[in-house]
């Protein structure tokens, strides 16, 4: 197959007209880019999250809608060609206002997703015009025609087969004559309602579309020049990684490296599609190539950090020499759709961690979960921990790993350690307030220049 790239631009890349123009130039310079997946303009989804919450007062709703309008109209003002996008934005925002009013009176997760989808609906229409004004024949495509999901609003699961069939039927033919601009993050359930794939989900959307269309490449354009040894916002010592294996990058994404949505690499790995990550601001700087095999496999590749983790310790003397205790604990967790992340055990107690993917301030471990667990055992719950993951290769067979990692962070309370199940990571929990310092010190130790 000839080169066929799916390109994804994140929120900061489509934040304003100048940023959009830079992205449009990237597309124009390489017309192998046939499908462009965009996020909402920076800040818009956060506004929409608030708008979709319960009982938001009318004055605040109006303010939010006015802020979104301003972001989008600033982009439109810079257009020079013919268009009716001002009317389009106004019409969309009036629909949004109506749904938000209903939501304020009677909250539903379904409407929250409908509300969230407006960010990508707006940015994709505007970005199409930016491409057209640069002389690229571009058309906007509503991804909900093909991105079919279940009805788990907020974290919808995509029907990969349906996506593939529908994308080949409805989307692929359009890419022959035009560059297709579409929305990340959103989908549609069997009842025709809009769904979303979870925060940061546009990366995943792009990877799914690349898989469905059998693309030769996936490019993720963001605000940093590739994947770094750790989040460059934590330490200026972080360095860009020129190439990394699928497995290592997937571990990074899973363990919190925000640069990629955790599920992004799953479709890419299934179809062996190389992924490029680069900066839409500085495309000439190159970036990171993620692929199946790479020329080096260093012991230490990167450090990822995931905040707001919950640690639950269950303790029962009945566990001593007993069988089936853990099965009962897991049955309760499964019933409440809680997915356990890390686990350590001792003779009479088990410690389990839970991620908080929605960033919700409400405890995942609600009173009914607690009540059921407490019938079995003593339960303690700790919030506000951070999970640090050291990612690399052959870690399970590396002598001196413990001292290399822990010697320099002696001053911190390591709450839990997980190592051995994977050759690619060593994870531990620390108090949230120490997270940045721990990552910084660890980075200095493991990645000293
Ligand atoms: P986008 O809006 O383009 O999807 P995100 O904000 O979701 O961008 O992801 C990019 C951000 O991810 C960077 O600005 C950086 O702060 C953060 N990040 C976290 N870990 C890493 C890492 N290991 N390498 C690069 N960036 C990282
Ligand atoms: N706009 C969505 C978000 O902010 C999806 C994305 O940016 O990937 O979470
Ligand atoms: Mg992102």
CATH class of the largest domain: Alpha Beta
CATH architecture descriptor text of the largest domain: 3-Layer(aba) Sandwich
Q: Figure out the total of helices.
A: 14
CATH superfamily of the largest domain: Acetylglutamate kinase-like
Tell me what portion of residues adopts beta-strand conformation. 15-25%
Provide the spatial order of strands within the biggest beta sheet: 3-4-2-1-7-9-10-8
As for the number of domains, it is: 2
Order of helices and strands: EHEHHHHHEHEEEHEEHHEEEHEEHEHEEH
Shape descriptor: globular
- Stretches with pLDDT under 50, minimum 5 residues: none
* Strand count: 16
CATH topology of the largest domain: Carbamate kinase
The biggest sheet amounts to: 8 strands, mixed
N/C terminus separation: 42 Å
Radius of gyration: 23 Å
Set down the secondary structure blueprint:
Blueprint: E1 5-9, H1 17-29, E2 33-38, H2 44-51, H3 58-77, H4 85-105, H5 109-116, H6 118-133, E3 138-141, H7 160-171, E4 179-183, E5 186-188, E6 194-196, H8 202-212, E7 217-222, E8 243-245, H9 246-254, H10 265-271, E9 275-279, E10 287-291, E11 300-315, H11 325-335, E12 340-345, E13 349-354, H12 367-374, E14 378-392, H13 401-406, E15 416-419, E16 425-431, H14 435-446
Parallel strand pairs: 1-2, 1-7, 2-4, 3-4, 7-9, 8-10
Antiparallel strand pairs: 5-6, 9-10, 11-13, 11-14, 12-13, 14-16, 15-16
Helix pairs in contact: 2-3, 3-4, 3-6, 4-5, 4-6, 7-8, 8-10, 9-10
């Amino acid at each position: 197959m000839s080169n066929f790239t799916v390109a994804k631009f994140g929120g900061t890349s489509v934040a304003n007209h100048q940023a959009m123009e830079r992205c449009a130039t990237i597309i124009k310079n390489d017309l192998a880019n046939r499908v462009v997946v965009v996020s909402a303009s920076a800040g818009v989804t956060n506004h929409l999250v608030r708008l979709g919450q319960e009982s938001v007062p009318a004055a605040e709703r109006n303010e939010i809608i006015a802020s979104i309008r301003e972001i989008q109209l600033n982009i439109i003002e810079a257009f020079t060609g013919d268009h009716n996008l001002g009317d389009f934005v106004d019409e969309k925002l009036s629909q949004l206002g109506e749904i938000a009013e209903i939501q304020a009176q009677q909250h539903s997760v379904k409407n929250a997703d409908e509300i969230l989808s407006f960010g990508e609906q707006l940015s994709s229409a505007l970005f199409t015009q930016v491409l057209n004004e640069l002389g690229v024949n571009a058309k906007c495509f509503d991804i909900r025609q093909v991105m079919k999901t279940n009805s788990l609003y907020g974290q919808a699961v995509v029907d990969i087969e349906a996506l593939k069939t529908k994308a080949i039927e409805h989307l692929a033919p359009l890419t022959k004559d035009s560059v297709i601009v579409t929305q990340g993050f959103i989908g549609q359930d069997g009842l025709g309602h809009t769904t979303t794939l979870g925060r940061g989900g546009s990366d995943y959307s792009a990877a799914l579309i690349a898989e469905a269309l059998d693309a030769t490449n996936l490019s993720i354009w963001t605000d940093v020049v590739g994947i770094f040894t750790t989040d460059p916002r934590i330490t200026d010592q972080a360095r860009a990684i020129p190439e990394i294996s699928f497995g290592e990058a997937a571990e990074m994404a899973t363990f919190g490296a925000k640069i990629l949505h955790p599920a992004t690499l799953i479709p890419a790995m299934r179809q062996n599609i190389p992924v490029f990550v680069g900066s839409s601001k500085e495309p000439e700087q190159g970036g990171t190539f993620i692929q199946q095999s790479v020329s080096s496999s260093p012991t230490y590749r990167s450090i990822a950090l995931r905040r707001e983790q919950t640690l639950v310790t269950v303790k029962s003397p009945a566990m001593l020499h007993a069988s089936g205790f853990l099965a009962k604990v897991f049955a309760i967790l499964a019933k409440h759709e809680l997915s356990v992340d890390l686990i350590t055990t001792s003779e009479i107690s088990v410690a389990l961690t839970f991620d908080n993917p929605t960033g919700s301030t409400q405890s995942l471990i609600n009173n009914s979960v607690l009540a059921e667990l407490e019938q079995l055992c003593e339960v303690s719950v700790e919030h506000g921990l951070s999970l640090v993951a050291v990612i690399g290769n052959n870690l399970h067979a590396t002598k001196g790993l413990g001292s290399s990692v822990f010697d320099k962070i002696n001053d911190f309370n390591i709450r839990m350690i997980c190592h051995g199940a994977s050759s690619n990571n060593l994870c531990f929990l620390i108090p949230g307030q120490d997270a940045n310092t721990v990552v910084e010190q660890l980075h200095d130790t493991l990645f000293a220049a």
